[in-house]
Write the structure tokens for this entry.
Amino acid sequence: MSEYHVPVLLKQSVDGLVVDKSGCYVDVTFGGGGHSRLILSQLSQEGKLISFDQDEEAKQNLINDERFEFVDSNFRFLKNFLKVMNVMPVDGILADLGVSSHQFDVPQRGFSIRFEGPLDMRMSQGLDITAADVVNTYDEKGLRDVFYQFGEVKIAKKLAQEIVLARGSASLKTTQNLIDLVKGVAGQKMAASELPKIFQALRIEVNQELHALKDLLKQSLDVLKTGGRLVVISYHSLEDRLVKNFMRSGNFEGKVEKDFYGNLVRPIQPIFTKAIVPNAEEIAKNPRSRSAKLRIAEKL
């Protein structure tokens, strides 16, 4: 389990989640099972944990515990599954939105700029579209929008032009094909800072990550009981902005409504005004935690 993924902000997130030791909780991003194991350790025998993961390889980490149930699905279908399982409303939902260490470290998944592998980037092998499909079939405007909107890539326009030009001769099939092209467009020095953003943008597009996150956040209001906790760990500003606005106002624009007397009218409220971030010790042990932000809210 520890080799598969090192859970980020582990204690802080589970402490913020478990408000009733005999309650029912949902870990929508099971991965290596680190958060799920700690949640189970906090629950009584009457407690229950349901964990979701769309990645087939996460099944190798399943937990043998009668209080644990695994759902092989994307968390955007949370409400449907919980309704069928007859466990609504639940006491808490936890989502760790990061790519697991395992996914980054397996070249065949195509997530990392450190290894040559196929341009895949699918969180679930059941998805139809890969990163190769994006770079080889999207038109210039579509590519530019993906790179700019999901990665804030500075060279988005020029990169889109060069991809369309390059694929006229040969398809871009591997991570190294894309890396070489980016270096040709941006130069070695600038490519070092742009490549992680380019890979992030493609990953978000392939997996429709922001759409899935919006679905999860909206469904949480129907799934959680009053006083239930929503706990989310995000890793980039696009995700964190959605989570922050939603926890503050119940919508993605962050527009807070007030009643006649000036009191806030919202379905959920943050427990802390600021995000919780890893300390220096955690970052030293797990450099990938550096960008993590933890936000916790309670349904009203």
